[in-house]
Amino acid sequence: METHRAHCLILPYPVQGHINPMLQFAKRLQHEGVKVTFATTKFLFETVDEVSASISVETISDGYDEGANGIVQKIYLPRFQKVGSETLTELVLKLQDSGRPIDCIIYDAFLPWCLDVAKDLGVRAGVFFTQSCVVNNIYYHVHKGLLKLPLEATEVDIPGLPPLLASDLPSFVSNPGPYPATSQLVVHDQMEKIEEADWIFFNTFYRLEEKVIHWMAKILPVKTIGPTIPSMYLEKRLEDDKQYGLNLFKPMTNACMSWLNERSISSVVYVSFRSLAKLEVKQMEELAWGLRASSYHFLWVVRESESKKLPKDFVKETFGKGLIISWGPQLDVLAHKSIGCFITHCGWNSTLEALSLGVPMIGMPQWTDQSTYAKFVKDIWKMGIKAQPDENGIVRRDVIGQCISIVMEGEIGQEIRKNAKKWKDLARQALEEGGSSDENTKDFVSKLIQS
Ligand code: UDX
Can you tell me where the transmembrane regions are (predicted)? Predict the structure, then answer.
């Protein structure tokens, strides 16, 4: 008798930093024999540069099929909830009618209404968090009223975490004022019905956040399944698994990789702040002059929309020393032997990617959860340092130069590289046969097939 092949529908929030980890998880599930349908919004599907051939993609609507440019979150989110609920329901019913019923909807924690859709349809549901366990725990404590806002103390103590300064906390906790709709979504809505989901997936691995995972797993059915890095970079298991596979921007792969091939080992500083972070003009200038003054080559991702902030003639004047690209194949770049360090905004994917590929980091966090990762990179994982801004929040050129020297040279740099190697090995082990994330993924699949 043919065994039932479970079918999961996976729905990310439509931005690159959420698509990448969920798409990679989709591929892992496929590798374990699960059938996966990946859902995106119509607008996103029509604008993507490339879709991996190994993934079956269907669309739903967020209510903005012509694009949501200029629409504020306060308007966008409720419309996505309304139109998204209807069109997700239609999609699940369509798949059912065509003989491909869905066994489980794995939805982005930014789309908590998917849980109601799943329940109404009698389908099981898994919620996928694209942030670290540390950050999830912080939001959980705020949402449950265990950590009161506005913060009263300059230092907070949360179970499973080391003592954290207010400035180490996500911006939606330390300063929720400027973006009320996004704060509500990130801190509260994500956590609202977390107990009702059948599974809770975190893109992290046990050894990286041992204490806090242990603490959260006591109260919630948490499964750590990361790092969701395409396995060819870590284990060489899935042959077709090059990059993530659903790019919103076209990477300048040839120009970038042939330039890196000309550089010597550990001689290049890689700089990227995408995909959501925007730098102030003053910060772009300081960064530019800091890179130019350093004795190392640099590869800098500057989105087209940001390139006008570069100092006049900068590209021309730094030709040869630096290469500026609008989007790159980040995993290939981080895995390249010429890369010596990564100046990063500390988005969770970039942090996990650098950590898993053993690249030392210089953290320049901008907002949301990035300050927390910069703190952990520096003080807990000891895989990099944090560039200290001045009283106006700008990291000055001389500080950038000093940070590059510290990480690329000397004793601190050596220690960081030693730790980088350790984390790279531990990340790989988590995904290898019998590793914690591999076991968690297999356990999910076996439960899905059984019931
Ligand atoms: C955001 C948040 O910062 C992050 O913490 C959250 O958990 C997910 O959403 P984002 O700001 O986009 O993400 O940064 P990051 O999480 O680092 O994701 C960026 C992704 O784009 C990475 O997977 C990176 O590999 C990719 N990228 C970036 C490229 O492929 N090419 C580039 O040139 C730059």
Answer: none
